[in-house]
Amino acid sequence: MSKNSEVAKIFREIAFILQTENEKKSEPNIIFKIRSYNKAADEIQNLSSDIGDIYKKDKLKGLLKIPSIGKAIASKLEEYITTGKIHYYEELKEKLPVDVSQFFGLEGIGPKTIKTLYGNLGIKNISDLEKAALEGKIRSIPGFSQKKEELILKKIQFFRKSGGRRLIGEVYPLVRRIEERLSGNTGVKQAVAVGSFRRMKETIGDIDYLVSVISEKDGNNIIDYFVNMPEVKEIIGRGSSKAFVKLNNGIDADLLVVPEESFGAAMQYFTGSKEHGVAMRKIAISEGLRLNEWGVFDKQNHRVAGATEEEVYRVLGLDWIPPEMRENRGEIKIAKMEKKGIEKEDKLRLSQLIAYDDLKGDLQVHSNYTDGTMSIEEMALNARDRFGLSYIAISDHTKSLRLTNGLDEKQLLNQANTIAEINDKIKINNNSKNKHFRILSSAEVNILKDGSLDISNNVLDKLDIVGAAIHSHFSLPIELQTARLISAAQNPSIDIIFHPTGRIINQREGYPVNISKLIEVANESNTILEIDAHYNRRDLTDEFIRMAIENNVKLVIDSDAHHPLHYAFLIFGIGQARRGWAKKSDILNTLSAKELLDSLK
Ligand code: DGT
Ligand code: CA
Ligand code: CA
Ligand code: ZN
Hints:
By secondary structure, the chain is of the alpha/beta class. The chain has four domains: 3-161, DNA polymerase beta, N-terminal domain-like (DNA polymerase, domain 1, Orthogonal Bundle), CATH 1.10.150.110; 163-258, 2-Layer Sandwich (Beta Polymerase, domain 2), CATH 3.30.460; 270-352, Beta Polymerase, domain 3, CATH 3.30.210; 361-598, Metal-dependent hydrolases (TIM Barrel, Alpha-Beta Barrel). The strands form five sheets. The chain has a five-stranded mixed beta sheet with strand order 2-4-7-6-5, with helices on both faces. A five-stranded parallel beta sheet has the order 14-15-16-17-18, with helices on one face. The two termini are 51 Å apart. It binds 2'-deoxyguanosine-5'-triphosphate (DGT), calcium ion (2 copies) and zinc ion. Residues 195, 206, 208, 254 line the site of one calcium ion (CA).
């Protein structure tokens, strides 16, 4: 494990153990601490440089520059880097000597339950838990029941099945880095990461690399290179054209070397999905051809295509299909229609799919007015100069979200005034390509339990654009939850519903909500639904995106940035939109700021 992953794991454990501190749970300090440790863990996990190196170079000052790292946590980092231990963590572990990280992702079995299980039965890990449940020992603990015991067993089974899948954002920089290095090796023609990664799925089971080489010797060299990378923890297997390894972060990676004339066919095969591949092979058969990872072959066994994916699709009578759409959900029919040139106005044209460079703005951005880590100006200049955006909306939290120091009416209006001043100021020295860069005033208004908002409409109407979101009362029944969202959508001051289902992938299911009803109301009320691009949300899902589009609801893709580096998450939102078949015209932040604002309700 890299130092970054080790520390991230420790921080997550600290946050988890802190949640077991029953009596103090309501104390705002503790809640704040828990959030801080979790956020720090996220950041460190995603850092492209090693924290040891950062410390070597700039000491504590360097650590403090990492997003979401304050003084207290920086000094813990320093302690870990210099001594290999964190005293505070050791103390917490003494009180609860449980392997808590094993329980991460085991939904419904939270910190308190684990503390009780340890206190009563000495359960320290998942096998202990499974054993106790099978022996019927759990039902006798006060507050538990036979039903709960059965539920625990079910959860363990579910967890074992889905276990080990990583969020795409957790591995994205690493996958690209290795891909780039493989491409740069002598003798390598092309190297790409295929599989679920190329399809931009939410979670990745393992990483699949495909490489084409000039000679056999180059093939051997690249396999040598691959298994000896510093990221490799263990070589699981290697052959003359293949290698399987386990990386330091625990994820498996495969490498397959293919000749150039088969590269396209292999890409097609190993990008998947399996279902898409199966459907493609059926088409080949119906055309009197045979498709496999080596190429497309005719009856005489002549290769009629294989070097590029485009020609593989072409000889089967299809247009090239973007990887994100390859789930056998109707995309083959569309590609066929297009190839034959049949125009159908209401149908998607593959060329209209939103592209990775289509976004002009970002409409959910947080600043240090609330729980963001940087000033409005820093967020703006980074968006403009490093990410090429033409506008951002500062959508800080509002007052009822006390945890984030949410803004009240007066503070919101002050912020809007400050934004106007910053706009004037940064216009003066704007040497960037985005001559008309603009910060929009906005808010992420908190939707209260009854569906009303915590900021009055006359204040919201003074802002350029307004989003609303649910941050509490997740367990209301579906009718009430849906009614809350609907009443926010019907509010004339609300332009966007942010992260509409509230799910956090691998951590929390969304609150129950009738999405088709929300989509219907969004359509009637000209309310935009957001695709939150943060890789742990990707909320809406691809399926809901398709549903929204079919019902003429407009969407936006936002990073939910709390630090300038988070603008990089926008690609996960675009990937999600492409998986949901969104056209550029479905996504309103592909418009200029003026066009966008003109289209609001
Ligand atoms: P993952 O790793 O679980 O996130 O998902 P994938 O899609 O990356 O799946 P993986 O790594 O098992 O295999 C990579 C691709 O190889 C997969 O998307 C399609 C292809 N493939 C693997 N096994 C089969 C198979 O049995 N039949 C067919 N048609 N294709 C397969
Ligand atoms: Ca894979
Ligand atoms: Ca694989
Ligand atoms: Zn939010």
